[in-house]
Amino acid sequence: MKVVLRNPKREIDLPAPRNVGRLLRHLEIIPESVLVIRNDTLATHDEMLSDDDVVEIRPVTSGGAV
After folding, report:
1. Cα distance between residue 57 and residue 55, in whole Å
2. Which of 15, 17, 36, 46 has its Cα between 20 and 30 A from that of 65?
3. For the whole model, what pTM was predicted?
4. Is 24 helix (H, G, I), strand (E, B) or coil?
């Protein structure tokens, strides 16, 4: 499975864990701090992953009106 991370941007190849939550724990990422996109679709933390997936992990950002 290819994992695309940002800040800094990098790509890593990993064997697929059972689900998104387990991937985040493996990478030591706080689940509430990121969005996970699996094959161009937003993924839930219990979604199963496979070795041919491309997973992008994006930090959650917030902003407001000035």
Report:
1. 7
2. 36
3. 0.85
4. helix
Place of tokens 């890593």: 12
| 10: Cβ contacts below 8 Å, ≥ 6 apart | 4
Strands (E), the chain: 2-5, 10-13, 34-38, 41-42, 54-59
Distance CA 45, CA 20 (A): 5
> What are the tokens at 21?
């939550």
The identity of residue 7, as a single letter, is: N
Mean pLDDT confidence for 10-25: 93
CA distances from 26 to 7, 12, 61, 63 (A): 18, 13, 22, 29
